[in-house]
Amino acid sequence: MSFDSQFDALLEEAVLRLDADRRTGVRFLSTDLNSLRKEVTTCERCELCDTRNKTVFGEGSPNAHLLLIGEAPGFQEDKQGQPFVGPAGELLTKMIQAIELTREGVFIANVLKCRPPGNQDPLPHQIESCRPFLQEQIRLIRPRVICTLGAFAARTVIGTDQSLSRLRGRIHLVEKTPLIATFHPAYLLRRPEDKFKAWEDLKTVKRELEKQPGVAGFGRPSP
Ligand code: SF4
After folding, report:
1. Are 73 and 118 in contact (CB under 8 A)?
2. Angle between helices 195-211 and 86-98 (to 10 degrees)
3. Rounded to the nearest whole angstrom, what is the distance from the C-alpha of residue 156 to the centroid of ligand 1?
4. What is the residue with the minimal CA distance to atom 2 of ligand 1?
5. Phi-psi region of 81 (alpha: psi -120 to 50; beta: other; left: phi over 0)
6. Is 211 a residue whose pLDDT tops 60?
7. Which of 71, 142, 185, 218 fits 105 for a cystine, CB–CB 3.0-4.6 Å?
8. What is the pLDDT of residue 27?
9. Confidence check: pLDDT of 222 > 90
10. Is residue 173 domain-resident?
11. Which of 19, 30, 120, 126 to mutate to test the pocket of ligand 1 (most atoms within 8 A of CB)?
12. How many domains, in total, are found in the chain?
């Protein structure tokens, strides 16, 4: 990349950052997932609101013991407003079933709630603008275990720049909640030879869930 194009890219990023800062500052009024979902639907905290079709808040049980976190909506998710649809979503469903849970019994979310155009990697200011929504989801769901899908989600939620290979195979703690990092299902579709490693991660997720007091199956019963 030439100096000029590097400079232009930095300038563009700075302008976008300022724009995000200008839009940031919403104070959450939500006391439950439904009202938080409504806040996400109308969110304009970063420029992705200009290009999205639908926000993708996430779906599943509000009482889930397990929270799965991916990166950002893709083309189909943006059209349908649901996380993990299409072949990667089907594989994720199988991964969840492999540890004797159901898709309806867990909660599935993404770091970003709107699709970056062209499936670009999320930019730092977009992550920062959207991060409070994920934090609120964690606070409201109170999962016993978190599982991140892919390097990007793991780095964002753990708060590190380490590679996924270094983050896998360990149990991290996020606000005292155990977190296990595994591969994104879309990656596993491209590299099926790594599915056995994902299976090891999923077994760790199951073990961590089983260690939690009062966890038996598919999510806390509704109060
Ligand atoms: S990506 Fe997140 S912060 Fe940006 S507009 Fe969508 S919901 Fe708001």
Report:
1. no
2. 50
3. 15
4. 130
5. left
6. yes
7. 218
8. 54
9. no
10. yes
11. 126
12. 1
CATH number at residue 60: 3.40.470.10
Give domain status of residue 221, yes or no.
Answer: no
Question: Which atom of ligand 1 is closest in space to residue 40's alpha carbon?
Answer: 7
Q: Between the CA of residue 154 and those of 125, 166, 191, 201, what are the distances in Å?
A: 17, 11, 19, 13
Q: Separation of 193 CA from ligand 1 center, angstroms? A: 34
Segment 127-137 shows an average pLDDT of 95
Neighbouring-strand partners of residue 5: none
The pTM (predicted TM-score) of the whole model is 0.85
**Which element (helix H / strand E) includes 126?**
helix 124-141
Identify the residues whose C-beta falls under 6 Å from ligand 1: 40, 43-46, 48-49, 55, 112-114, 126, 129-130
Residue 1 lies in a domain: no
pLDDT in tens, 7-60: 455 455 444 444 444 444 445 556 789 999 999 999 999 999 999 999 999 999
**217 found inside a domain:** no
Checking if the pLDDT of 142 tops 70, the result is yes
Parent domain of 132 = 8-22+29-211
